[in-house]
């Protein structure tokens, strides 16, 4: 009996193994927290190329792109973490503010939180896809969600569904740690590529660095 590696089952298992390896490497590079920017930019950059060339070596490409995106991703990541910290401090301050006038700043905080959420959905994918400066990438990330609202709604919808499943189903949390984060990012990358194509270019597309490899991670 011949062992057919081209059978659909083994093709799927091979893809699963590659995404699992990518997921684990992504989590390792994410551990310092401050590297959230380079890690996300590298992940999306790798998956954008995977969508166009599904035979690339995912882990190899991810590590190359992590190095390439590190400086800009680190700056943007730290700025984003600072914004989130300010919002958390504001909400904590609001909880301690026991007065009717507190509802005005609450509205402002909620609006700011939504704006930061949408900005975070696009900030690192835009960095991964287009060769722009930090300032221009932030400007595009702030404006694009409102122009491509259907795309933004779909991205946030994926996050809500995944977080909901992970919260209510403990087994899903395990799967997310093993390979789920990379699969979720891949699903979002398809929506992002559609949005970028539909609503126009936002700079020169970054040059590919992939090396075709039909085997290996």
From TrEMBL:
Keyword Membrane appears in the UniProt entry: yes
Keyword presence, Zinc: no
Segments crossing the lipid bilayer: 20-39, 74-97, 103-124, 144-168, 174-196
Keywords carried by this UniProt record: Membrane, Transmembrane, Transmembrane helix
Top-level taxonomic group: Bacteria
Protein name: DUF624 domain-containing protein
């Amino acid at each position: 009996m011949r062992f057919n590696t081209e059978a659909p089952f083994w093709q799927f298992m091979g893809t699963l193994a590659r995404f699992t390896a990518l997921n684990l490497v992504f989590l390792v590079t994410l551990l310092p927290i401050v590297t959230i920017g380079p890690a996300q930019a590298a992940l999306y950059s790798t998956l954008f190329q995977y969508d166009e060339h599904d035979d690339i070596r995912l882990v190899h490409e991810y590590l190359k792109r992590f190095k390439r995106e590190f400086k800009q991703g680190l700056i943007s990541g730290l700025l984003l973490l600072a914004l989130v910290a300010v919002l958390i401090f504001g909400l904590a301050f609001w909880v301690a503010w026991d007065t009717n006038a507190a509802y005005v700043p609450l509205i402002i905080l909620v609006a700011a939180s939504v704006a930061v959420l949408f900005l975070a959905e696009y900030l690192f994918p835009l960095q991964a896809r287009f060769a722009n400066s930090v300032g221009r990438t932030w400007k595009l990330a702030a404006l694009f969600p409102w122009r491509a609202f259907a795309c933004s709604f779909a991205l946030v919808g994926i996050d809500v569904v995944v977080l909901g499943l992970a919260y209510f189903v403990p087994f899903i949390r395990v799967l997310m740690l093993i390979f789920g984060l990379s699969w979720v990012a891949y699903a979002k990358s398809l929506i992002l590529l559609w949005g970028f194509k539909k609503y126009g270019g936002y700079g020169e597309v970054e040059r590919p660095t992939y090396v075709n490899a039909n085997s290996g991670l």
